[in-house]
Design a protein that fits this description.
By secondary structure, this protein is mostly helical. Helices cover about 70% and strands about 0% of the residues. The protein starts with 10 loop residues before the first helix and ends with a helix.
Length: about 325
């Protein structure tokens, strides 16, 4: 999530990423089911698709195509998987300790920690998987538009059908977010190609069109709050996110050299903030504070998350080993 030291930084991009990370933290902080809580429902409607689309946009496809599998894996090991490993070890270690204390340790449980990392940790290994698949597609010269449309259709299918209605061998991949978010990653990558020029021009020349479309879809989607899936709601969700990704990236590029702010710093250091912001939630929920004393939960969790963000920002660039272990600096 954080580029290497020699990469040119664009304030607009970091601002967008920073606001998305703030929404991630807010979405994790708020209690209640996604389908019953309007705040969580609204945030979860778009924050990850847009974040993933932005990530795809920032991928240098030409560099990726020329890099070998080993080179790509090495790069992403240091940039993402190495910092991820520390967070994975901490969260999984605590869960394993409690499972051992309660006599629940089994081979199946250990494998589940690997197959389904704790809560938010799914994103990092899934991102690396997407990069590797994208790299293979580039080397095979697979048409990006065709691949993108296929996976966007998969996203529409997932959002339309309940888990019981999905094919048994597809449902696990869908539930792990591997397939249905990949289309947004590819869409972001496609926006950097010349074939997207006409699409981007329409959105740029007729700004009232994307804004109107976004507001209309957001309103309709919010009115459809609930657990039941439908083709109508899925279509609204897909159009909303495709338009948002293109529109927000265009706005970010237009403000590429805007004055840096705290949000810019958060966006620049999104990887460690994403990995570690849930620590207070992990501890408080482990003691059931969110159920017994929700007001205490909100107060302590909010203050703790803010302190974690400022602590991470203060550590940036202080030590080489910290930069590599927590910030993903190559």
């Amino acid at each position: 999530m954080r580029a290497s030291k020699e990469t040119i930084r664009y304030t607009g991009i970091d601002n967008l990423r920073g606001w998305l990370i703030v929404l991630v933290m807010l979405g994790h902080l708020v209690l209640g089911s996604v389908h019953d809580n309007a705040i969580r429902y609204s945030i979860y409607a778009f924050h990850m698709p847009v974040f993933i689309g932005l990530t795809g946009y920032l991928i240098n496809a030409e560099s990726l195509r020329k890099s070998s599998f080993i080179e790509t894996m090495t790069r992403y090991w240091w940039r993402a998987l190495f910092p991820f490993a520390f967070a994975f070890a901490l969260f999984s270690g605590v869960l394993l300790f409690h499972a051992f204390d309660e006599g629940r340790v089994t081979v199946s449980l250990l494998l589940s920690y690997i197959h389904t990392p704790y809560y938010h940790l799914w994103f990092i290994p899934t991102l690396v998987l997407w990069v590797l698949v994208f790299s293979a597609a580039l080397k095979l010269r697979a048409p990006l538009v065709v691949t993108m449309l296929f996976f966007l259709f998969a996203a529409l299918l997932w959002a339309s059908l309940s888990k019981s209605e999905q094919w048994a061998f597809i449902a696990p991949l869908m539930s792990k977010k591997v397939i249905y978010f990949f289309g947004f990653f590819l869409f972001g990558a496609w926006l950097r190609t010349s074939s997207s020029k006409q699409f981007r021009s329409i959105l740029k020349d007729f700004k009232v069109l994307p804004v109107t479309l976004i507001l209309a879809c957001a309103t309709l989607y919010l009115l459809e709050i609930g657990i039941d899936k439908s083709l109508f709601r899925a279509s609204i969700w897909l159009v909303l996110n495709i338009t948002l990704i293109a529109f927000l990236i265009d706005v970010a590029i237009s403000n590429a050299k805007s004055k840096p702010t705290l949000v810019t710093d958060i966006g620049r250091n999104s990887l460690p903030i994403y990995l570690w912001h849930v620590v207070p939630l992990f501890v408080l929920k482990g003691f059931d504070v969110h159920q017994t004393q929700p007001m205490v939960y909100y107060l302590v969790a909010s203050i703790s998350m803010v302190l974690i963000v400022f602590a991470i920002l203060s550590l940036e660039g202080k030590r080489k080993w910290l930069d590599r272990a927590f910030f993903g600096v190559v």
